[in-house]
TrEMBL record:
CDD domains reported for this sequence: ABC_HisP_GlnQ (cd03262)
Domain ABC transporter positions: 19-264
Superkingdom classification of source: Bacteria
Subcellular location per the Swiss-Prot or TrEMBL entry: Cell membrane
GO molecular function, one term: ATP binding
Membrane topology: Peripheral membrane protein
Protein name, per record: Ectoine/hydroxyectoine ABC transporter ATP-binding protein EhuA
Chief place of localization: membrane
Alphabetized UniProt keyword annotations: Amino-acid transport, ATP-binding, Cell membrane, Membrane, Nucleotide-binding, Transport
Naturally occurring in which organism (per UniProt): Castellaniella hirudinis
Length: 268
């Protein structure tokens, strides 16, 4: 039986996972980057993904954001298949309209901020709510100001990205993602490109978000102390699978698997 035949009806139970990755395989040419990965995230859960470079961490987030396709397996977001849609009772590869609708549930923050350089901070944030969600300019501006306040960037609304520090740019990138009202936020090493003295301000914003909002959050980071405070669960990835996962106090203080111990010995 083909993997894609094992489709389940949309979940309606609020206790069911908001994200389910079921035996997901991702290959780049000859290389198998995700190797029959099973991964679930509960609604509102804060999950940190750790692991060596090349273990597939970014690929997981990029697949959820629909920036990469998958080769095998199924993914469900909010109870609906992400990469498939149902036609005549059969799963078929998702079309662009389905992907667009699914993508709206997720916001992503990248290592390299990725702000639009030719737009002011305010316009960076209002652009997608206006053009993708169809908000009026007024409503999008009010929304943008609300999230600028949340990330402590209110007084920089009229500046261009090049006039801001890396930490400030990343806080704008977070506000921009939030302004789309996603239910899931994906952070891919959001502080790795920052000078050490700017890391704290970005982590503070992420921590505040996790405490004050009912968002589901997936964070890839090497900031282990932060992961310990932030996470409900830590997943250690290696070679495209989850080698070990559990509450942070368990993973960081008494990892059961030798590979996890080796990794943590070298990063902490
Ligand atoms: P991580 O984020 O854990 O460092 P990635 O998910 O970025 O790892 O990458 C996992 C593996 O997939 C790496 O070996 C990487 O070189 C490879 N890879 C990622 N993206 C591509 C791509 N677009 N084309 C070819 N190989 C890729
Ligand atoms: Mg990466």
């Amino acid at each position: 039986m083909n993997d894609t035949d094992t489709i389940h009806p949309p979940a309606t139970d609020p206790a069911s996972p908001i994200i389910t990755m079921d035996q997901v395989v991702k290959r780049f040419g000859e290389a198998t980057v995700l190797d029959h990965l099973d991964f679930q995230v509960a609604k509102g859960e804060k999950v940190t993904i750790i692991g060596p470079s090349g273990s597939g961490k970014s690929t997981v987030l990029r697949i959820l954001m629909t920036l990469e396709t998958i080769n095998e397996g199924m993914i469900y977001v909010g109870g609906q298949p992400l990469w498939h849609e149902i036609q005549n009772g059969q799963p078929v590869p998702a079309g662009e309209a389905h992907l667009r609708a699914m993508r709206k549930q997720m916001g992503m923050v990248f290592q390299q901020f990725n702000l639009f350089p030719h737009m002011t901070v305010l316009r960076n944030i209002t652009e997608s709510p206006i053009h993708v969600l169809g908000l009026s300019k007024d409503k999008a501006t009010r929304r943008a100001r609300k999230y600028l306040e949340l990330v402590g960037m209110t007084e920089h609304a009229e500046k261009f990205p090049s006039q801001l520090s890396g930490g400030q740019q990343q806080r704008v990138a977070i506000a921009r993602a939030l302004a789309m009202h996603p239910s899931i936020m994906l952070f891919d090493e959001p502080t790795s490109a920052l000078d050490p003295e700017l890391v704290g301000e970005v982590l503070t914003v992420i921590k505040r978000l996790s405490e004050e909002h009912d968002l589901t959050m997936l964070l890839v980071t090497h900031e282990m102390e932060f992961a310990r405070q932030f996470s409900d669960r830590v997943c250690f990835f290696d070679k495209g699978v989850i080698v070990e996962q559990g509450p942070p106090e368990e993973i960081f203080t008494e990892p059961k698997v030798e590979r996890t111990r080796e990794f943590l010995k070298n990063v902490v």
